[in-house]
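Worked example

This section walks through a single chain of length 318. The input is the sequence exactly as stored; nothing has been trimmed or padded.
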Amino acid sequence: MFNIVGKRGWYFLISALIIIPGLLSMIAPPGWSSGGSGLKPGIDFTSGSVLNVTFEEAVQPADVKSVLGRLGHPNALVQAVGDNSVLIRTSVLEEASGGRVSERQVIQDALEDSIGAIAASGVDTVSPIIAQETVRNTFLALLVASVFILGYIWYAFRRVPRAYRYGVAAVVTLAHDTLIVLGVFSILGRVLGMEVNSMFIVGILTVAGYSVNDTIVVFDRIRENAIRVPDRRLEDTVNLSIIESVGRSVNTSFTTLLVLLAMLLIGGESIRELLLVVAIGVVVGTYSSIFIAAQFIVIWERREFGRVFTLGRREAAA
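Given that input, the structure is written out below as tokens.
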């Protein structure tokens, strides 16, 4: 039987090599790269304007975005609302002054000239204060969810010795997956100038749910095997449980990625960020449930926290 648990030190080393660059990117000053600061906030998290434009005929968001690009708003977000309406998010639009027409009017005139007549339009201002509250509420939701996850798994695994460790491991894995996604987008923000918007928050919460679900699948098999053969060593029980459940986890993740890929190809730009976050989360969640969460239980049982990164090399030498 393949000894997956025996290489546990390597798995934590790989995670460290992925997480550390992301953390450095998030805490480094904005001037660290030409792309600006990590986790570059988009319009949803900064002050900006939201235009709701309804045309008399059907319209394609790509055509609207093309017009906005020519007007100096290449980063504007355009979302279809029905067949003939679009929601446009841009930086703050200048008001009319000194005989000059407002930017809103310039955009509307350009849209009418290039696309078609506008039946109705409206504009609102996005406040960064609301975005800050959204981010704060998101982290509060993750914190509260972590507490409930810890309590639920502790109760569900009460027949297993030291059941609370499984709850702690699930929370640690959740933090592991979240940090990797945040780090990846921080680096993308610096290198490619990729912005994060409200869809990113939705994606983070989705990743959190997927991560916990995949972790519990593996933990449930560990629980069954531990109850069936209580005298077996924990590392042997964990190794057997991983081998028995890895096929299900990989197959589920693969089919999920196929659906996400199809949505990336045919979906609109407004959900592309969400799909990218979830795709990264699916890959990371599958890896962490097998190679981090389950191994964390063994490392805790054997009290190997101080030498976790040397375990893989020692096993390879043996």
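What to look for: The longest strand covers residues 118-126.
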